[in-house]
Amino acid sequence: MHIVIVEDDPVIRKELKTLLENAMYQVTVLEEFDRVPEQVERCQPDLVLLDVTLPGTTGFDICMKIREKLSLPIVFLTSRMDAMDELTGIMKGGDDYIRKPYQTPILLARIGAVLKRYKGSAMQEVTRLEHKGVSLDISKCVLEYRGEELELTKNEMKILHNLFQNAGNFVSRMDLTEYLWESQIFIDDNTLSVYVTRIREKLRSIGIEDFIETKRGIGYRI
User: Is the pLDDT of residue 183 over 90?
Assistant: First the structure.
């Protein structure tokens, strides 16, 4: 997932970039603020992390201009504490409003929650995804390959849907677990491995070999 950071403080900018890259996000940092909506449109990110107070403009104005052309999550990250500012941010089109100084786990959790809501909406709109000749039919909950259909359970479907949405990129075990069960609390880490093993066995049964790649310490990709 690709995140654009719009933040004028170079120290915070660097900190956020490192934090998000360590969480396996692709990150683009903007350092000029006179044409932010145009730069965001060129990047086509999955989420914008946006400061409110910026040189020569405000995050509120930028948010409105982005909303005129793009439908993507926008999260305000700001030191402004006034409740009216938070209300203004939401009314201008923001999906969340996080105050500095932020706590790292909470920041990552809230970014993940916003992305999940948008991905859930996309799943309702798109009914078929394809990769390497393999099709995932969301409406029928089946996987198709060379004329053969493979029925999937609900959780098998959700795992494959997440991998198809991020085709070519690794998805961490943490992200897959959160996507499946909303929280990692009380979930045995081996459970995900069991599901992936079952999916691989099903894939092999219709002639699909080495479709899901595992990278130790990173996660899975197709």
Answer: no
